[in-house]
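Forwarding the complex inputs:
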Amino acid sequence: MKSDLLAWVSLLIIVSNLYLLSSSRLASLIKGVAFQGILLGALSLLMAGHSASYHLIFLAILSIAVKGILIPFYLSKLVRGVKELRDANPVIGYSLSMFIGVVISCFAFYILQKAPFVHAFVSVFHGASAISTAGIGLFLIITSRNVIRQIIGFLVFENASFIFGLSIALYQPLFVEMGILLDTFAGVLIMVIAAKRILTVHQSISVRSLERLSK
Amino acid sequence: MNLPEYIISPLAALLLSPLLAGIINRTKAFFAGRKGQHLFQVYFDLARLFRKDYVFSKTTSWIFRVSPVIIFTATLASTCFVPFISSGTRISFAGDLVLMLYLLALARFFLIISALDTGSSFEGMGASREAFFSVMTEPVIFTCLLSIMRANGTVSITEALSAPMLSDSISVLLSALPLFFVLLAENSRIPFDDPNTHLELTMIHEVMILDNSGPGLGLLEYAASVKLWLFSLILGRILLPSTGMSPFVQTLILLAIMGLIAVVIGTVESVMARIRLIKVPQMLFGAGVAALLGFFINVTKAIPW
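Prediction (whole assembly, two chains):
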């Protein structure tokens, strides 16, 4: 029953990835990534139920607080009210990128069959959601014209490493995970400040505008 | 109950399919705070249409006259492949899924050319939309039903749907949810098309039957309700819990699930507005994506947990 629930949460993570690929508004992208952060918390709570450890419960609370509430709140404060920051505006269209996202997820299920490290994961779904989240995070970064969407891609990629790490989280000290979370938060903080600078200098958040910097 | 399944299933569709539309209408009336029409109103409407006489436009040819019959029989024939009571003898062979869906495609083809045959540009527009939407829905149905067949380890849709259904809730969700979207799109229900409008530029199914009258119109309406019955039967079969029940109890539960599906359709129609035509492909694409994911999850399920 527990591992069934785990599979459901992992599937929801994959679905939230696809949602991120298909949403056209930055506000909904931020909501999606917040939802994913909460799902990560749920995932580690379920893992905690598996192994009855307070370590994982603390990690769950921490990840919900940082990834589900703090970072999305900070990002949406930046986006709110700025008209230039409404549309995600990716290089590849939404339907095609959603299709590529599904291909990545299917590939994740496929590669798990071949991989020698299957048993590191609690379930197939857990492993597949980690791999597909990593792939989709990179894809989000590559296809963005928009700095905020790149930050979200970075967050998604970081979430993937969190999911990977969950399977060994029991065997490493909590400080490692806390350090990673702090790094993520500091990273997003700096990125958002940089994005604000880009916006004030160029009146746009597009990566293209940075090309003009060479002169 | 020694009748073979391929007779029972179409018979059930004939007798009970207008009831589904009645349930949908009552649900919509409940949401609107109206008393609503009679539960059997669709039966009365059909009976009234069959008592009437034909009126044919001078532009139409024999295609227009023969189409309602072909559409109705093809739709009814496709119900043979979805078992209603799972105990009877069935026709099933490898790849019967293709025949079932192509019977529906045949019905759609004749609906489209009969609409074009009237020479009305309005109907041509509806026909073009119907053809376009079917391009989007057919891959989704194929993927959903293939993943069910795969999960049950068979190559026949009849066998797959009459076997005890999937115990794995993720596979059930990932094939049932896209199928529900397809059901709404294929039967011209609200997020995709409004079944009640008659004078709107965006309607699809209603515009194609605009020139039909009397028994021809009755057959088309009947075919539409049989098609709705077919899709909700497939969906009900997927959602049917797989415990060891007697066929009678199983059929009762199946009917209850189908009634529930009709209530859900009515609820969706009451709380949603029709989406813009441009959004339709995106929505169906999303359904297809979910179906594809479910299919691959089923394919790769060989790994031990």
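Chain A touches chain B through 25 residues (CB under 8 Å).
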